[in-house]
Amino acid sequence: MNANLEIDIMSNANIVSKCKKSNKYANELYSALCNNLFFYSDKQWSCSWRYAGSIIATIVGDGDYLT
């Protein structure tokens, strides 16, 4: 089992659509991902604030997560 929440998020059409339509949704998803540790059965996945910003920027089509 591949424990990669980034792939799951970015391949979920509903999440991608909501992020593109709503800055609030994108910000809330970013906040949920920041500095958290997620578990997939016996695997784990973590996300720093920069990594979370990069994920959201990629989803909404803004290549720079710092803006």
Structure overview:
With 67 residues, the chain is an alpha+beta fold. It has one domain (5-59). It contains 4 helices and 2 strands; from the N terminus they run αααββα. The protein has helices spanning 5-10, 13-21, 23-33, 49-60, and strands at 36-40, 43-47. A two-stranded antiparallel sheet has the order 1-2. A hairpin with a 2-residue loop joins β1 (36-40) and β2. α2 crosses α3 (23-33).
Largest sheet: 2 strands, antiparallel
Radius of gyration: 12 Å
| Spatial strand arrangement across the major sheet | 1-2
Tell how many strands the DSSP assignment holds.
Answer: 2
* Number of structural units classed as domains: 1
The end-to-end span amounts to: 34 Å
β-sheet strand percentage: 5-15%
Shape label = globular
What are the segments in which pLDDT stays under 50 over at least 5 consecutive residues?
A: none
Mean pLDDT: 88
What series of H and E elements makes up the topology? HHHEEH
The helix fraction, in percent, is 55-70%
